[in-house]
């Protein structure tokens, strides 16, 4: 009885928080409306899924209770679309994205003949023998296949987006991608535990499944709080990239096919010199949101050529290339005795960084020291 009360209590808390946060995301003024709406929808689906635990409390009919439990099939597809919307600034919902609801439709159609369309007595009999019902077994297999598909898909998107970002941008979005990667890992752990729970559900140890269910709810509560904390403390966290941008390896591959990749050595040296002079004289790296398109427009070198020059020829990501100039500038400030009272935080903003963690990481990568230790060694 205590376990049931605990399950209901946690379910009520998570449902309330999920709905409250979804309302906040839908009403807050932001440039990332689609991302907010998709994550709000994900939270609403989470709240609906959890509300199945409140069936006895809310006197929900068996049909509605089972239908609610099938909303799980929509959660990961919506999260997948959310990841796309966070990664790519030009992402838009299209009619083709309705295909992501196919498993939800299949799961319910399979239950139609022997559950939804029968009388109450047959429904009760169905639920009493639920572990042996082929429809339920099929839906659980479908559920786990879907989980693996969308989790792998989300990681692939994040991996590609990070590569594109490093090759074309020099701002702080890499932190948002890293955080979203961590968030996806947390969700992966959650769904893996759910998989284990479902396995025990069809064995002789259903009590283990119930115990894991309570643990999952607590884990879900922590994940939601984590997202809320991160979103509220970093309102500008998500800055997306253009999905039309190509990875350098793809540009090289296309160049081999079209025989337009190579430029002569003279042109190459001229472009490299032009780039280096621009970086030293104009100091564009002081702009924390600098992109490769900005540099391309300023020095009149096509983005494609500039990307190959930096990412392929110099064997540096644009992100690291720009940060190297920022670090060199920071080192000059740290060496200047007249600026000994300038704080590390002031320096990082002055040279184009907008995050202490990204500054420390880049500085240590470039010098082998943290900024504070480097200053002390001078």
From TrEMBL:
UniProt entry tagged with the keyword Transmembrane: yes
GO MF entry, a single one: DNA-binding transcription factor activity
Segments crossing the lipid bilayer: 6-26, 38-60, 66-86, 98-117, 137-158, 179-200, 212-229
Domain HTH araC/xylS-type: residue ranges: 270-377
Keyword list, A-Z: DNA-binding, Membrane, Transcription, Transcription regulation, Transmembrane, Transmembrane helix
PROSITE patterns in the cross-refs: HTH_ARAC_FAMILY_1, HTH_ARAC_FAMILY_2
Pfam families, sorted: HTH_18
Signal peptide: none
This protein's record includes keyword Membrane: yes
InterPro entries (alphabetical): Homeodomain-like_sf, HTH_AraC, HTH_AraC-typ_CS, Tscrpt_reg_AraC-type_HTH
Descriptive protein name: DNA-binding protein
Lineage of source species: Bacteria, Pseudomonadati, Bacteroidota, Flavobacteriia, Flavobacteriales
């Amino acid at each position: 009885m205590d376990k049931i009360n605990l399950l209901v209590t946690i379910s009520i808390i998570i449902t309330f928080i999920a709905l409250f946060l979804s309302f906040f995301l839908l009403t807050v003024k932001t440039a990332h409306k689609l991302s907010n709406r998709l994550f709000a929808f994900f939270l609403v689906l989470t709240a609906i899924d959890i509300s199945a635990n409140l069936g006895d409390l809310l006197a929900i009919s068996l049909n509605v209770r089972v239908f609610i439990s099938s909303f799980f099939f929509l959660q990961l597809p919506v999260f997948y679309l959310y990841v796309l919307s966070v990664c790519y600034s030009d992402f838009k919902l299209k009619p083709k994205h309705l295909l992501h609801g196919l498993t939800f439709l299949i799961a319910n159609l399979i239950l139609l003949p022997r559950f939804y369309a029968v009388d109450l007595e047959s429904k009760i009999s169905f639920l009493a023998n639920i572990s042996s019902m082929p429809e339920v077994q099929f839906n659980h297999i479908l559920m786990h296949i879907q989980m693996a598909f969308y989790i792998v898909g989300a990681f692939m998107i994040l991996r590609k987006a990070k590569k594109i970002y490093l090759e074309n941008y020099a701002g702080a979005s890499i932190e948002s991608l890293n955080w979203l990667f961590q968030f996806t890992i947390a969700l992966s752990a959650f769904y893996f535990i759910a998989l284990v729970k479902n396995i025990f559900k069809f064995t002789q140890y259903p009590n283990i499944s119930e115990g894991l269910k309570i643990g999952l709810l607590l884990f879900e509560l922590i994940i939601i709080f984590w997202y809320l904390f991160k979103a509220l403390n970093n309102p500008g966290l998500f800055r997306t990239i253009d999905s039309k941008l190509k990875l350098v390896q793809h540009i090289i591959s296309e160049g081999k096919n079209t025989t337009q990749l190579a430029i002569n050595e003279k042109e190459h040296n001229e472009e490299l010199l032009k780039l280096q002079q621009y970086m030293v004289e104009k100091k564009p790296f002081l702009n924390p949101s600098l992109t490769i398109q900005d540099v391309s427009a300023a020095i009149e070198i096509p983005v494609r050529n500039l990307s190959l020059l930096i990412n392929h020829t110099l064997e540096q990501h644009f992100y690291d290339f720009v940060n190297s100039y920022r670090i060199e500038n920071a080192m000059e400030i740290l060496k200047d005795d007249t600026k000994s009272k300038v704080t590390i935080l002031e320096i990082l903003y002055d040279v184009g960084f907008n995050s202490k963690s990204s500054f420390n990481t880049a500085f240590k990568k470039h010098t082998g020291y943290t900024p504070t230790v480097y200053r002390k060694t001078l």
